[in-house]
Amino acid sequence: MTQVATLPDPFEEVAPPRGRSGGAAWGLWLLRRLGLAVFTLWLVSILVFLATAALGDPVRAILGRDYDSNVAKREQLQGLLNADHSILWRYFHWLGGLLTGDPGTSLANGQPVWGQVSSNVMNTLALVLLSALVMIPVAFGIAMISSHFRRRRPDTVIQTILLALAGVPEFVTGILLVALFSTSVFHIFPAVTISSATGHPWDTPKGMVLPVATLVVAVSPYVSRIVRATLLEVLDSDYVELARLKGIPEPVVMRKHALLNAIVPGIQVIALQLAWLAGGVVLVETLFSYPGVGFQLVDAVRSHDVPMVQLLSMIIAGVYVVVNLVADLLSILLTPRARTAISS
Questions:
Q1: Co-location of 70 and 198 in the same domain
Q2: Domain match, 136 and 279 both
Q3: Residue 141 domain boundaries
Q4: Most buried by CB count within 10 Å: which residue of 188, 261, 299, 336?
Q5: Is there a single domain that holds both residue 328 and residue 244?
Q6: pLDDT at 119 over 80
């Protein structure tokens, strides 16, 4: 009797070679990734410090016409910036303070900068996480519907809408949402985020709707298109055709075979979009007066508050690196062959 050869499933577990220490291999891989992340942040710190130092004398920009007359204030600000030392000394002094939790003193109010950004960091993280919780199921759902109707009219309509949304900047999307839902057309949601000095933006849920919707509309098209392309590639693969020949219903094929194989590329593109949100929220937070890192960064640039700009830039870079590191780890854990390759 002739046996029918079956094609291997990409998610089939592969036995690791004998005699190898998987834990040591994983530890080495993790140390290499952490070392690369630290090296990346160190390079970013150099670029941030040099960029802020190349902008000119912040003391002159702050004092303006009082630079020559107000000698006491000028010397005070120069002392905060250690302007009488070399740029190399100032960099390592700033880096040491950054590593020990003392990144400097604000030039705007003379208070430690870390105490002023902690609440804004939490506000931005809440906005990004809430947007991700809404964006991920929406993007995957649209991708599944589009791939189910591929090369048919619903797919064409969905892809046209996604392309149109992908070409619209997020601040334009925000303005359109404000014009539609916060004016005389539909006065449903507030145009700006209102929060008290001791409260949080999410204490007023209606004020979070438009910022979250703007970020979801800005990010979802990219994720949906990548996931759809992966789903189409998987649905045309040999092992999915074999599953269909075995009589497995199409919804089960989509859920257990196609969708699982689309998770890894989906995680990678989601990580890139979340990392982008860490810095891309600047425009959205400014538009809706949302008290987050982006809004504070714009205010610090306007007031020439160099220590504040440096710290916020490093926070954004740190979030970017951490999100990508987590995405790499999840991609490896969800791919058995990649896990086996590391273990061996």
A1: no
A2: yes
A3: 108-343
A4: 261
A5: yes
A6: yes
Is the domain of 298 the same as that of 215?
A: yes
Q: Are 194 and 123 in contact (CB under 8 A)?
A: no
Residue 98 to residue 76: CA distance in whole angstroms: 21
Provide the percentage of residues in the chain whose pLDDT is more than 70. 83
Question: Measuring CA to CA, how many Å separate 207 from each of 160, 212, 258, 288?
Answer: 30, 9, 38, 9
pLDDT computed for residue 62 by the predictor: 66
Shared domain check, 154 and 70: no
Same domain, 143 and 169: yes
Rounded Cα gap, residues 143 and 343, in angstroms:
33
What is residue 204's three-state secondary structure?
coil
Do 72 and 131 reside in the same domain of the chain?
A: no
Q: Reduce the DSSP state of residue 112 to 3 states and report it.
A: strand
Q: How many domains does the chain have?
A: 2
pLDDT bin (cut points 50, 70, 90) of residue 344 is: low
147 touches 156 (CB < 8 A) = no
pLDDT, one tens digit per residue, over 38-47 is 999 999 999 9
Half-sphere exposure of 212 (CA within 13 A, CB side): 22
Give the C-alpha separation, 307 to 108, whole Å.
10
Same-domain pairing of 98 and 114: no
Task: Assign residue 333 the CATH number of its domain.
Answer: 1.10.3720.10
For the whole prediction, is pTM greater than 0.85?
no
Amino acid in position 72: A
Both tokens assigned to 188: 């449903």
The reported pLDDT for the residue numbered 147 is 85
